Amino acid sequence: MNLTDIHPLYAYNRWANLRMFSVLEKLNQEQFAASIQSSFPSIRESVFHILAAEWIWLKRWTGASPVAIEPVKGASFETWKKLRAAGVPPPLQLSTVAELRAFCDSLENERQQFIAGLSEKELQAPVNYSDMSGKPFSMPLAELLQHVVNHGTYHRGQVTTLLRQAGAETIPLDMLYFFREEREKNAGGKSAA
Questions:
Q1: d(CA 51, CA 117)
Q2: Is the dihedral of CA 55, 153, 151, 117 positive or negative?
């Protein structure tokens, strides 16, 4: 994995998040927060989990591993309220689609700056970080970057299932569709099979 691989991977992640939000923005707040069983108890909690993980990992990569101010179980909005990164709590107003979308956009801007500043050497170097309980770990940054995109892909798939259960519109989020769209853009709008 090198920087040439990382850039399209994160372009895909951004594309998939934006497409997910294009569907979520059509839901009313009741649909968004309704209890539907999956890994998380609602569409809102599932989307929140994707973005919370992206925030946590970005903080870890930049040397401010979020830790809980008291023991926590699982990763939920209640856990989020107990986290601190370098003593500072994460954003707490993340209950609506609009709030989560704004958080996603802010996070994306910060992450793009981080990735743009990376060298090949930094990409291969280990990142020392702590989990939310403070337990230390060390892994190459390239592996952690791959993990975050894979994690988001997994949970966006769950969001798609939850949307179907709620009778809402869904949209393909496979990387194949991303590559097709990119080829079409690069070909000046001509269809590329």
A1: 22
A2: negative
- CA-nearest of 171, 168, 167 to 181 is 171
Return the CATH superfamily for domain 3-186.
dinb family like domain (1.20.120.450)
Distance CA 125, CA 141 (A): 6
Angle between helices 3-24 and 97-116 (to 10 degrees): 170
**In the chain, where the domains are located:** 3-186
Two structure tokens written together for 168 = 């809402």
CA angle 105–160–98, rounded 5-degree value = 30
Q: How many other β-carbons are positioned within 10 Å of the β-carbon of residue 152?
A: 21
Predicted TM-score (pTM) of the model is 0.91
CB 179 within 8 A of CB 44: no
Residues in CB range of 64: below 8 A, 6 or more apart: 85, 86
- What does each of the 193 residues of the chain score in pLDDT, given as a tens digit? 999 999 999 999 999 999 999 999 999 999 999 999 888 889 999 999 999 999 999 999 999 988 877 766 555 677 787 787 777 777 878 889 999 999 999 999 999 999 999 999 999 999 999 988 889 999 999 999 999 999 999 999 999 999 999 999 999 999 999 999 999 999 986 554 4
